[in-house]
Each structure stands twice: as structure tokens, then as C-alpha cells.
């Protein structure tokens, strides 16, 4: 009786465990081939199931029968083992070609997916029963992840560019030319090295995206120290330079390629200049493209083969360098403290001729007075050799020229005047002492300042298409559009925004200090009053009274100043906004006599758009804390310009970019010429 009871008990337990296994398999999607099923009591069970985020899924299948799965980073992938199957089933998850093993006895079969996962392979008794590839998508929605070169017995190689999902729409480029080679999403491109040498520059292309393969067999080829990549950053764009030693590379079949992350945002390299034995290829990348310039690199090709590549190198400071840096900073600070008092009285010394262009008064002719400012006199003159017209600004104080020149040389913006240099003029004080005076040299603009130019259109005569014509006294007749008026205000706001970013206040924003070129590009000038930041510090009553008396006696306070600045003590960034509002009021009044009294709000000019008038009212608010920032002013003007003529606004931006490039080329010429000459313009 007991043996029979034991037999029935064993059968009951077996049936119970079978039902559990069958219940576990009921809601899962299990995968296996013909070798992966097990028979028990006449039933076949699939052995392995796949869940993604705890949801059963099915694998995708190619036309050739290969399995794959598209995933996202940090997705939770789980393998489910049917308990009714053979316990000798094991799966390997490959990550960077290193596998981790899961079995039916594993406690945790969850895997958090990352970009390095590539495939999963399952076996039973060392026999493969299932394999599928994993395509893991990036967080930034980019397609390519990395590149791998796999050699095959010396006859060929596989160039694999790993993608974020399964697709066959990938092309292979050789030296930037497309090759007609089919793409295998699992293995990549097969290259027969007898027809396509491996030492070419290869890239994968998918839609607009590019990824480059690391060049092969370049170690110790002698070119690594003769080819480099440089980058210069400017206001609107970055300049990439690929430089190589032309003397060391004596080969006529030399070319340089710029490797880019995007096909549409890959600028063309041009041979801009040759410096001594170095040949320089340059390309400009707009900062609005949102692509890091460090994602580009230069490739040197000789006779069709890649011999070197150059990247932007990051600074590598070791602990020793940091220690030396701290010691050096301490020494500099000590010297600075000792010499501050003696240097304070002679802060603006004569500018070195290696920094700026310098000419003598004898090299100019036809000098004539153009106008008189608050503390300077403006002349025009002609260069004897080139017959080019320039402007000479003779300041009352010697220090003004050097101070303004140093400040202007530190500013790089298309709407801020670029100095040409200085003029050297002997000034004899006594019979035995001859001192040298320096005066600032500036470009000459035929339309002169905005105040003079805009007054030609008063009283305004408005024609069709918002075009204004000059008055009858102006010959020849000129015209200006409403778009031009708004663009002038936008350019001034752009320059003031840049100055605020540099922590500089101009302190004399007015139409008389804005020059205008023939193509209506504005240039802010006259930086004699400019200072670093705001003037908000508390001062003693004695010094405050002294400053007030000095300001009123010298009548040195501009009439455009707001109330908080009329005492000549305080000045804020919001004060700059107030002066900008007054400038716009005069601009859209066509220099009709502006009331600089404290009438608020001002009368809306007849030809001023409502959006511009509202901005003027906000800018000249007597409460400085209620005024908008200069960035907000620029944004409002940008919106108005886009609404008026979006294409013309884009042309205006391109004109400013061309102006920056023109200044860069001119500075490059100056830096070369000053090495051989000290007296020139």
C-alpha cells in the first residue's frame, strides 16, 4: 500500500509542476528552432521568451532570415526561461565583444540596455538554438554610434559603422566619393583590399549624418608632427584651419579633407594663405549651426592615401603644471601689488608699433576739419601713397587716444568701429624736449554719422512701399526704407548687447556717435566715456559733491542721460537702454527736434510703427528697474524685421558676417606687415 501511495504522490507532483510550467508559458512569446523544443509527456514547449519593459515582444526578421531587435538606451530587457524546458539552456549577452552568461538558474535575468550591447546568443548543450542582433538608439537621435574595422585573412576587411536601428540605407564614401558597395547592417561593408586599399579615408553616410573610420597604419609615418588643426572663435562663427608643412611634404598630389559630422553642415576648405613654408586651408562654421567645432577634424591625403589626421587637442595639465600655475599667479599678484601705485599715474603709455599700425603726419595730405566733439576734434585726410581717405581723431588729453585704442582693439563686432592705427605727431615743448603725440586713425564713411544722414530725410516724404526720399536740398536724391530704419536700431542694439556681454558701458549712446556705411551697416564710435561695468558703488559725500560740481561746471553730461545719471555719479546698464530709447525716438522722428525734457510718454512720431513706439516708451521709463534689457530690445526688433521682410533680414545678417570676415582678413594683413615695417598705414 505504501509503495502505491508514493507512486501516486510522485505523479501528482509531476503533474503540478507541468501545470505551473504551462501556465508560465501561456502569456509569453517564446522562440526556438527545431532543436530547441523538448518533449515531456507528449507536449512541446518553447524555451525562451523576451520581454521589453516587462511587455512580451516578438523579434524582427530580415529577408535573409536573421533576427534583430530595435531598442532604446536604458530599456529594460528580460529573458524568460520556460521551467518545463531543459535546464542546460544558457544565453550570452554581448557587450563590447565581451559576453555575460544567463542560465535557467539565474536569479536576475534583467538587462539595462546601453549603446555597447550588440547581440544575444542562446545555446542548449553547446548547440546554438537562437541568436538575434541588438540595435540600440542614442538619446540625441543621431544614427551612428561607432566604427569597427574587422580584418579577414588578409584578403579583405569589414568596415562596420554601428547604427541605432536596422536599415540598409547606408553609403560608403572613399575620399569623399561614394562607392557602389552593398551594406550589411550586421557586418558592414566588405572591402576587397586588392581593389580598394585600406589606407584610404572612409566614411559612412546615412541621410545627412557622417561618421569617419580611424585611419589605418599611420603610426611613425613621419607626418604626425607636420600636420595640425587650429581653431579661431569669432562673434558669429568659428574658423577651422588645417595647416601642414609644405616644404616637408614635397608632393604635387596633396589634398586636405575636412571630416564633418553632417553633410549639409560641412563647409568647403579653401587655400586661404601660405605663411612661410606652411600651407593653410580654412573653413568657417557658423555658431548658429549648433555643431561643436571639435567634432570636425582634418585629414591629409597624398597620392590618394591618407597619411595623417589632426584633431583639436585638449589642454592636458598635470599636477606639476597646476602647481607652477599657482606659483606664477602668486608672483604676478605680488608684482602687481608693488607696482600698482607707480603705474596708476601712467596707466596709458605709448602703444607699441608691433600692436597697431603707425604713420607720420608727413605721409598725409589734404587734412581738413570735419567736426568738433566734446573733448576731441575730427579731421579727414588722404594717404599720399594710396589716396585713401581716413579720419583723424585728435583728443584733448593724451591718455584718451591710448585708452580708446586699447578698448577698441579688444572688441570684435561688425557694428563697432575697427581702428586703423595711430598717427605720430611731434610736439615740441621746450628747446631740448620733444614729446610725441598720438592721434587715433579711423575708417572714413561717406555718409558720416547717423545724425547727419537721417536729417537729410526731414521733413519725411513717404512714398510707396514705405520708402522715404531726401529733401530737395540734397543732391543727388537718396532713399531709405522703413526696414532700413528698424535694421539700424537692431544693429545698434546688437552692438550694445555685445558690450554688455563684455561688461562695458558706452556712456554716450546717441545718433552722432553712430556711423553708417554705404550699404547701411552701422558702427558705434566714440568710446572716450566708456568704462568697465556700471557705476553703482557708494562714495563719500565729499567726493559725491566734488563729482557733481565737476560735472555741472564742465557741462560734460550728455543731454540724452536719464535722471539717475544727471548728477554725473551713477550709471547703469539700464541707463544705456534709456539712451538707446532716445536714439530710436530721434531716428523715427527723422531728427525732428526731440524734446529732451521729461515728457512721458513722448508723442508717437508720425512714421513710427506701433511696436517700435511701445518699445521706445518702455526704454525711456523714468523708473530704471522697469526698463527692458538690451537683449529684450534686440529680440523685439528682430521680430519686427522678420515680419517685415524675412529674406531681407537674412541678407542683413549675411552682410554683417561678411563685415566680420573682412575685418579678420585686414587684421591678418596688419599682423604680417607690422613685422617688417613700423611707419605705414
TrEMBL record:
Record PROSITE patterns: PROTEIN_KINASE_ATP (PS00107), PROTEIN_KINASE_DOM (PS50011), PROTEIN_KINASE_TYR (PS00109)
UniProt cross-references to InterPro entries, sorted A to Z: Kinase-like_dom_sf, Prot_kinase_dom, Protein_kinase_ATP_BS, RTK, Ser-Thr/Tyr_kinase_cat_dom, Tyr_kinase_AS, Tyr_kinase_cat_dom
Localization per record: Membrane
The protein's name: Protein kinase domain-containing protein
Topology with respect to the bilayer: Single-pass membrane protein
Source organism (scientific name): Caenorhabditis elegans
Residue intervals of the Protein kinase domain: 321-650
Signal peptide residue numbers: 1-25
Entry keywords, A to Z: ATP-binding, Kinase, Magnesium, Membrane, Metal-binding, Nucleotide-binding, Signal, Transferase, Transmembrane, Transmembrane helix
